[in-house]
Amino acid sequence: MKWEENPQLSDKLVALIAEDMHDEDRPLPSVTELIYCLTKAYNDRFQYLPPTTKGTIMMAVGVKLGDVFLPKLRREIGGEYEGIHSHIDFALDGHMGELKSTRYSPKKHPSEYSAGWHRQILGYMKVQSVTTMVFAVIHIIPAELKTWEVTATQEEIDTNWTWLQARKVQYMDFIQKQVRPTPFTFNEAWECRDCPYKLMCDAESAAISDRERFDATTTPDSG
User: Fold this and answer.
1) What's the domain range around 188?
2) How many independent structural domains does the chain possess?
3) Which of 117, 122, 109 is closest to 155 using CA atoms?
4) Residue 107 reports pLDDT greater than 50
5) Degrees (nearest 5) of the Cα angle 92, 95, 99?
6) Is residue 223 in a domain?
7) From CA 217, how far away is CA 208, in angstroms rounded?
8) For residues 131 and 154, is the Cβ–Cβ distance under 8 A?
9) Inside any domain, residue 177
10) How far is CA 31 from the centre of its chain?
11) What's 34's domain CATH number?
12) Is 5 within the bounds of a domain?
């Protein structure tokens, strides 16, 4: 057999996968928008660029694993609460749950999971008026599924919700003004890796710095 790599076909497949996963009809705003980079969330809605190849593949893995694991459990759990929308993955044995896939080691304790995952589960608890949820994690390498029952205090839930509400106010204000949220201000540093908008943010950030330097060296005309 003769094998010959075809990068052009790979690019086409990645583009089709990214297009299939892009959801233009998401309710505004959602819990997941508010817990991650607001600049990217704005761009995804109003100045959309497809994810990078790596980002597309990682998203596709998570989506397809969810399709395999959840068809018998998936329910439309969610809606709108105090102006924030949510969609929870599944219900099992009386508990609502969220499914994630990750390259984290199965040895990693949930307390070490990303702040975004913690904020998401706390947000869903507030929306559903519960203090316990299921958090299922598919570890890719080595292949393993770990399922956790997560219990939070009402104080933890309410504190997180206050943070989400503040983010909602900021985000919706930018949307109302039709202005992109200021780059590198509403995100964690790791979110810039493999982000399709990174060059846009770099350029805008440089322009802001130039204006600030100009304003600092310009004296008012006393004339």
Assistant:
1) 15-215
2) 1
3) 122
4) yes
5) 65
6) no
7) 14
8) yes
9) yes
10) 9
11) 3.90.320
12) no
HEC readout, 134-148: EEEEEECCCCEEEEE
pTM of structure = 0.84
Are 51 and 193 a contacting pair, CB within 8 Å? no
Q: In whole angstroms, give the CA distance from residue 153 to residue 191.
A: 28
C-alpha–C-alpha distance, residues 99 and 90, integer Å: 8
Q: DSSP letters along 86-138, please?
A: EEEEEEETTEEEEEEEESS-TTS-GGGS-HHHHHHHHHHHHHHT-SEEEEEEE
Residue 220 lies in a domain: no
The CA distance from 192 to 52, in Å, is: 12
Question: Rounded to the nearest 10 degrees, what angle do helices 7-21 and 53-69 cross at?
Answer: 60
Per the CB < 8 A criterion, the answer to whether 31 and 120 are in contact is yes
Residue among 202, 47, 32 at smallest CA distance from 124: 32
How far apart are alpha carbons 117 and 112 in whole angstroms? 10
> And the tokens for 107?
């040895």
Please say if the pLDDT value at position 223 is more than 60: no
CB within 8 Å of 13: residues ≥ 6 apart: none
- What's at 151, amino acid-wise? T
Which runs of consecutive H residues, i.e. helices, occur in the chain? 7-21, 31-35, 38-46, 53-69, 115-128, 154-177, 198-217
53-75 tens-digit pLDDT: 888 888 787 777 777 777 666 66
